[in-house]
Structure formats: C-alpha cells, structure tokens
Design brief:
Mean pLDDT of chain B: 91
Largest sheet of chain A: 6 strands, mixed
Largest sheet of chain B: 7 strands, parallel
Strand content of chain B: 15-25%
Number of helices of chain B: 7
CATH class of chain B: Alpha Beta
Number of strands of chain B: 7
CATH class of the largest domain in chain A: Alpha Beta
CATH superfamily of chain B: P-loop containing nucleotide triphosphate hydrolases
CATH topology of chain B: Rossmann fold
Shape of chain B: globular
Radius of gyration of chain B: 18 Å
Helix content of chain A: 40-55%
Oligomer: heterodimer
Order of helices and strands of chain B: EHEHEHEEHHEHEH
Shape of chain A: globular
CATH architecture of chain B: 3-Layer(aba) Sandwich
Helix content of chain B: 25-40%
Radius of gyration of chain A: 25 Å
Number of strands of chain A: 9
Strand content of chain A: 5-15%
Structural class of chain A: alpha/beta
Low-confidence stretches of chain A: none
Chain lengths: ~350, ~230
C-alpha cells in the first residue's frame, strides 16, 4: 500500500482520499501542483517553505503516506468487539488477596462505591491499561474471557474506557452542531447530518431545558452540557466501557442517561455516593483500602426501595428549586416530606 | 544507559508526567536521573528530589533553550554514566513551536495539553511531528468528545507516534508510558548522533545584543513578513 500511494498523482489522491488535502493545509502548504506525485512534490518544494513545515523531504513523504494509512484504518469498523470484561482480583494496599473473579457483560450496569481515596480510580486505571498482574494492585483484566493481545494493549485505538465526570467541561468555542460535526469527522463517519440530529434529540430528552443545534457550547447549562456529553458518548464514541464519575447533581434525567448507554451496548460503570444512582447497578462493587472488598448483587429488597428513594430525591430537588425561586420552608413542605415516608 | 528526551510547550505538564512515570519505574528498582532544562529559573528539581531521583538543572538564560540543550547533552550523558543510571531523562521546554530537540534513535516524547486548542498539535513543528511518543495531558477536565477530537488532531500531525493520555495528578496512564521507557535504546555516548531536524536558526543583530529598532540595525538572518 505504501508504494501505491507514492505512485499516484495528487489530483488522483485527492479524489480517492478527499481528506488527504488537509495534510498540506495543516502544514501551511498551498499552491500544490496537482500533476505531481508526493515524491515529486517534495522535490519541487523550496527549502524555505519546507523548513517552515518542520519536516524534511523524506519525512514529508513518509508522514503523508502514514497519514493516509492511518485515516483509512480509522474508517474501518473496529475488529476488536468487546463482549465482556473479566477482572481477576489482585491485592489491596495491605497485601490481602482480593480473591475475586468478576465478569461484566455488554449492557450491564455496575456501580462502584467507596470512600474517597479508597482505590476507585485505581480500579478504572487497571481496566484502562488492561493490567496483567503488573500494576500495583496485581489485578489481571481479560477481554472476552481471554488474555488480550499484548502488542495491541497499549494502542490508543484499543482504549476501552470513555470517561464522564462532574469536573469535565466543554472548552471549545463552537456551536453544538459544529462541535458534533467535528467529532463525527474525527471518527470518519459518513452520515454526519443524521448522527447530529440523533444526538441533539437524545440530549434534549435527558436535559431539563431544551437547546438547539445553534446554541454555543459555552452557553449550555451544567445539565445540558452533561446531557450532550452522554448522548455524544453513547452515539459517537467507540469505547465499549463508559465510566460515569459523580454526576449526582448534574441536573439530568439520570435513569434515561443510563438506559441510553445500556441500549447502545456499553458496559456502564458508575462511581457514586448517591443512593438512587448506586441502586441502578445490577451489581455494586465496594472498594476499601485499595481492594475490592465485596460485590453486592442488587437484591429484591433493595429494588423495592428504589422508588421511595427516588421520590425523596425528587422532593429534595423540588425544595431546592423552591428556595432558588425565593420560597420559604414552612410546615406544609415538612409535612409533605413526612407523608412521603409513610 | 537508556536515554529519553521529553519536551513540550510550557505548562503542558511535562514534569508531572515524568514524575508519575518514574514512580512506576523505581518500583521495579531502576535508577533514574533527570536533567531539567529551563530558561530563567525552575523549582521542578525539588519535585524530582522529593521522589528520590538524581537531578541536574540547566538554565539557558539569554540563549535559545534548544541550542543550549543540545550543546550540553553529551555532558549530561557522561554524568548519567558516572551516576550509574538505568535511564536518563532530559526535560526541556519548547518555547517556540519551531523547537526541534529530538535526536535520531533516542526515544523522544512530546507532551501537549488538551486545553491548548484543537489545532495546536498541527501548529507545533518537529517537536511534535517527529516525536516517537505524544503524551496528552489534562484530559480529565474536557469532555470525552473533545479528547477524541484532540487525539485525532495529534494523529493528523504525527501519524507515526504512539499516543498516550496521562493524568498528571492521579498518574492514570503513566504505567503504559513506563513500559515504553523500559524499551528505549541504550547509549554510552551521543557523539556523532544527529538531530531529527535542524534547530531554529537565529543569527541576526538582535541575537547578539542589539536593542535599537530600524532598518539600519538589521543584519544577519532576516526574514520578512509578506504584507
């Protein structure tokens, strides 16, 4: 393939690989003679122009060919479909065995609870780098029940985890529509219009107040931002695992958010202190002293209490809004809380 | 002794990335030394001392930091050999995007920051375009989508590089990089090795101390803006 690209003239390459023109644009090279091959083009360039690109002739040719190859591999669907992830236990901070073998399947929701600093991030990092008993926890991660290909382990294309946390912000100064387009382009997706539409509908379904495609990212409220991030991750991100970190007060319909991710065949990990969110998980991992202390399967009894916990949560949100609008806390509000409990 | 060059724009998180990566390496009993190149002053040597690595500081003052780095690197290698280091890491700030600190065959790392703007990777010259590894930092405060777009932009600018996301605060991702450092090539000397790309040229009257403005004071390597 490498030799093939070098044989074509620019006008042919620009037709077959429309994005290949970007390579020159980003290097600041204009006025390309379309009749030349990449090697001829490199030879024809003035030293001064070349020097400003930060590449010599050989490097310019090599990078151009690699660029096309890389973009072509991005177009292909990933061949490493993940159906399940297995965590084989290692040791906690005191050296005690975790003694555990945990399998997560696509579509499962797992909540992770534990005090700050207990080792939640460490667990995630182990999954992310596909630990093979070589990290401080000595855990091992299997994909689809097998030891992952060691050569592919560190390729960023194979990174499994998409992350979403309270601390994340949009930093680009773009309209919602432009932003989704940019993301879709980076994934080399064809039907950009359709996916943009879908993401905006999904996000609006989760967010409290609606926004449209012409809203600047920087003007989105906290809830709208979070909703857009989740919809975009569900529909445009390749990572099979989504970690949601502390989105307690994000102002979105959390249930709908999780449902969307599950529907898109993600493995959803939720790190949380929030009772409603913690009970969304089919399993609940308890982390203590750097290790997995236990795994709780959601019981019938706990399931029974989800509704009441949710009602209390809604009530508290209502009171917050009431206060925000200048309301006063009086007997009637307190009574309504009592009534809920009975 | 393995040698690794780390560079990147100011405040991109080079020191944090190196510190977190070293913590993975010293756990395996490796002896690491760092040469910190900076311009006017630095406090980072204290950070390195705190984690128990050997450190030397080089301040370039009024010289081009890149030129200063390359004229001193061989002495640093000698120092590393005397100290019996397993890995010598040089850290230098790329102050202009035209910096070109990478040496052929020597493992080279460029650190860039997610907050620096989606087109920044394309604007950085040989420092990023010719690095073996590009590390992206501060990914924990931008959205997943922006991380992916930034990653794409790095791939466009340097299709050859291995790319890592590292969180300089928690160290997440630093283990992966430490594995690559262990695979770096070994050297006894860098004499006769070559830079991957020429360094920024700068011999004009202002390089040698001129402070007056005007046509009559311009001599040497002058380039004109096209207006």
């Amino acid at each position: 393939m490498v030799k093939d690209i070098a044989l074509f003239r620019m006008e042919q390459l620009f037709k077959i690989y429309p994005y290949s023109e970007d390579y020159f644009v980003s290097l600041g090279i204009n006025d390309i003679d379309h009749r030349l091959t990449i090697e001829e083009l490199a030879v024809s360039m003035q030293d001064e122009v070349l020097d400003d690109t930060g590449l010599n002739r050989e490097q310019l040719v090599e990078n151009f060919i690699l660029f096309i190859e890389k973009m072509e591999t991005l177009k292909k669907p990933p061949n490493n479909t993940v159906e399940s992830i297995t965590i084989i236990g290692g040791k906690d901070k005191s050296g005690n065995d975790e003694n555990i073998n945990l399998e997560f399947k696509v579509g499962e929701v797992i909540s992770i609870v534990g005090p700050t600093g207990s080792g939640k991030s460490r667990l995630l990092a182990d999954i992310e780098c596909l630990a093979q008993r070589d990290t401080p926890t000595y855990r091992q991660i299997l994909l689809n029940g097998e030891i992952p290909d060691i050569n592919k382990r560190f390729f960023i294309e194979n990174k499994l985890v998409a992350q979403l946390s309270q601390n994340m912000n949009f930093v680009m100064d773009l309209l919602v529509e432009e932003f989704i387009k940019l993301h879709a382009e980076s994934r080399m997706i064809n039907n950009i219009e359709k996916i943009t539409e879908e993401i905006i509908i999904c996000a609006n379904d989760m967010a409290g107040e609606k926004f449209d495609r012409n809203t600047p990212l920087t003007q989105l409220s906290g809830g709208q931002s979070r909703a857009l991030m989740i919809a975009d991750t569900a529909l445009l991100s390749l990572s099979p695992v989504v970690l949601i970190d502390e989105i307690e007060n994000a102002g979105i319909d959390r249930k709908k958010a999780i449902e969307l991710l599950v529907k898109k065949e993600k493995i959803v990990l939720i790190s949380t202190h929030d009772p409603v969110l913690a009970l969304v998980g089919d399993k609940r991992i308890v982390i203590k002293n750097g290790g997995i202390n236990k795994v709780i399967n959601l019981s019938k009894e706990e399931k029974k209490y989800i509704d009441i916990l949710e009602a209390i949560d809604k009530k508290m949100t209502g009171i917050r809004n009431h206060l925000r609008n200048g309301g006063i806390i009086d007997d009637s509000i307190i009574d309504s809380i009592y009534r809920l409990m009975q | 002794m393995k040698i690794v060059t780390v560079s990147g724009p100011p405040s991109s998180g080079k020191t944090a990335v190196i510190v977190k990566t070293i913590e993975n390496l010293t756990r395996d009993g490796l002896k690491i030394g760092v040469i910190k190149f900076d311009c006017l002053s630095t406090y980072d040597d204290q950070l390195y001392k705190k984690i128990g690595v050997e450190v030397k500081v080089g301040l370039s003052g009024n010289l081009c930091p890149d030129h200063y780095f390359i004229s001193n690197i061989e002495d640093c290698v000698k120092w590393g050999l005397v100290e019996n280091l397993d890995i010598l890491i040089s850290e230098s700030a790329g102050l202009c995007n035209r910096c070109s600190p990478h040496i052929k065959d020597v493992l080279s790392i460029c650190v860039v920051d997610s907050l620096s703007g989606v087109n920044t990777p394309k604007k950085i010259g040989p420092m990023l375009k010719l690095a073996d590894i590009v590390v992206i930092t501060k990914g924990d405060i931008v959205s997943q989508a922006e991380r992916e777009v930034f990653l794409f932009s790095v791939k466009q600018a340097n299709p050859k590089a291995s790319i890592f996301y590292i969180n300089g605060i928690t160290g997440q991702g630093s283990y992966d990089l430490s594995v690559y450092l262990k695979r770096a090539e070994e050297f006894e000397t860098l004499t006769h090795k070559k830079l991957k790309f020429s360094m920024p040229a700068a011999v004009c009257s202002y390089c040698t101390g001129e402070i007056r403005i005007g046509e009559e004071y311009l001599t040497g390597n002058i380039k004109r803006i096209k207006i």
